[in-house]
Amino acid sequence: MSAIERSRDDAMLGADADGAPARAFVELDELLAALPAERRGLPLVISVGRLARVKGMASLAHVWAADPALRRRANLLVVGGDLDAPSPEERDQLARIAEAVPGADPVAEGADPRGIAAALAPHGLLLAGHRGNDTVTRWLAAVRYGRPGLAAVGGAYACASIKEEFGVALLEAMSMGLPVVAPASGGPATYVEDGVTGLLVDTADPAALARGVARALDIAAGPGAEAAADRARDMVARTFTIQAMAGTLSRVYRDVAAADDRTLWELSAS
């Protein structure tokens, strides 16, 4: 059983295989508990990555905060960055994220990042900081399957990067069956089926990004959600698992070797 499958099963049970509460879910539930009662039970839009300008976390926060319908519909969970000892760039991005939320307590320059996170949570924006891959995998499962009394089923994954050459986090989300929002330029366009397994958008266009997130939530909540999830998982398993990529490379090497053999024969015969 793969780590993704284990996490999917864990999310549905709320526990590890031995029956003990999974620490990752305990940590997620603690974050979700900071939401006010009226925001508990909404689905999550999750984004995972560095707190860097090119990753677009602040842009995503601004888009979500500026769209009342989107804010009413889902909470935003941002995973990434060092909240204890942030770099100058991380501090800048945290300040930009804080500025996005109307009604949040004003954030002075150099404010404590944990204080920023605490001020944003009541408004539905959760800053989780960096988390290990095992935790992120379980959280992706929880975004899809929900957390009892805290988050609804049917969340989505959003990548607001200026560009994404490949997008490992996107593939991890798709392997969990989450509909994704991804940049239309770069690697994601080669594996995201626009309108089926996710949305390809111009992430520099706030309106397009907002529409993409809303449509991803539509996919997650729609009658074709399970079929779309199966299609996304099948694509990842068929193309991007270690076994699949090893098979592809093996074929490439065989083709190159065969071509070299033909070239040597042609040279020797000439």
UniProtKB/TrEMBL annotation:
Keyword Hydrolase in annotation: no
Molecular function via GO: glycosyltransferase activity
Keywords for the protein's UniProt record, in alphabetical order: Transferase
Domain Glycosyl transferase family: 156-219
Domain of life (superkingdom): Bacteria
Protein's UniProt name: D-inositol 3-phosphate glycosyltransferase
Organism: Clavibacter michiganensis
Gene: mshA_1
